[in-house]
Specification:
It contains five helices and 14 strands. It has a six-stranded mixed beta sheet with strand order 1-4-6-7-8-9, with helices on both faces. It has a five-stranded antiparallel beta sheet with strand order 10-11-12-13-14, with helices on one face.
Length: about 260
């Protein structure tokens, strides 16, 4: 009897959805990370081919789970906008287009030296760094963009007369504005700052409440005007009845009222 050969099936490679590191090491990092991710998601929500995420593991070498990075905030254009546990560049067809890192004491060296080299290789076209406390970056906001040769060049930080400063993201169509040390996203098209989904809902509710209040005030004013009109009409009617009664008695109403009003 011929020997039966065994076909060995390789075990599937496991790509973890966490690296065991905390999302943020301080409130400063977490607050701004949350704002940036939520504001960008809300801004690009109508576009089905724009994916926004933060602190999600990106695997960039098929078959090697050790090759991963988890940007604080990143945006990818041209991929479906749906939730993911991990991001694999070979499955998606590309890596991030924009990355924002929120620098801290433990990440400043990696953010400044290691990650730019990696992001450059991954084709991240715009790379921003933000230091919420202003301890490690001077200025607290920095940006780089890929040039035609595939190398990073620094972006020019524009400073306003009011002490604000900003960088312009051509890809996002937004400005990253630094005001009093706080980073906010600004849309030049609407001339307004980006809100998170919660802030947008809160703003809509506030606008609806103000509209309802204005309508109630208008209705109250109209009701008061009707009451005044009705009161004037009653007084006019009463004067007309009095005049008719005086005429029936042979008294001239105009003369009577004139004499009545004299001291």
């Amino acid at each position: 009897m011929p020997a039966i050969s065994q076909v060995l099936v390789p075990e599937p490679i496991y790509y973890p959805d966490t690296d065991g590191e905390p999302m943020a090491e301080s409130d400063h990092q977490r607050d701004f990370l949350t704002y940036l991710v939520e504001a960008l998601k809300n801004h690009f929500q109508p576009q089905a081919e724009v994916y926004v995420s933060g602190n999600l593991l990106i695997y960039y070498e098929e078959g090697n789970p050790k090759r991963s990075v988890a940007p604080d905030v990143f945006v990818v254009f041209g991929v479906p906008n749906h939730n993911r546990n991990i991001y694999q560049t070979w499955r998606e067809g590309k890596g991030p287009d924009v990355v924002i890192e929120i620098t801290s004491h433990t990440t400043r060296q990696v953010d400044e030296k290691t990650k730019p080299t990696l992001y450059q290789k991954l084709g991240v076209r715009e790379y921003f760094q933000y230091d919420p406390q202003g301890h490690y970056l001077k200025p607290a906001l920095r940006g780089r963009h890929l040039n035609d040769e595939g190398n990073y060049e620094p972006m020019n930080l524009i400073r306003g007369l009011d002490g604000s400063a900003w960088l312009t993201s051509t890809l996002l169509g937004l400005q990253l504005r630094l005001e009093g040390g706080r980073l906010r996203l600004f849309d030049p098209q609407t001339d307004d700052y980006l809100d998170t989904y919660f802030e947008a809902v809160k703003g809509r509710r506030q606008a609806e409440w103000q509209k309802e209040l204005a309508e109630q005030q208008k209705e109250l004013a109209e009701q008061q005007a009707r009451q005044v009109t009705q009161q004037l009409e009653r007084e006019r009617h009463e004067k007309e009845l009095l005049a008719q009664q005086l005429r029936a008695l042979g008294i001239n109403p105009d003369e009577f009222l004139k004499n009545l009003n004299q001291p």
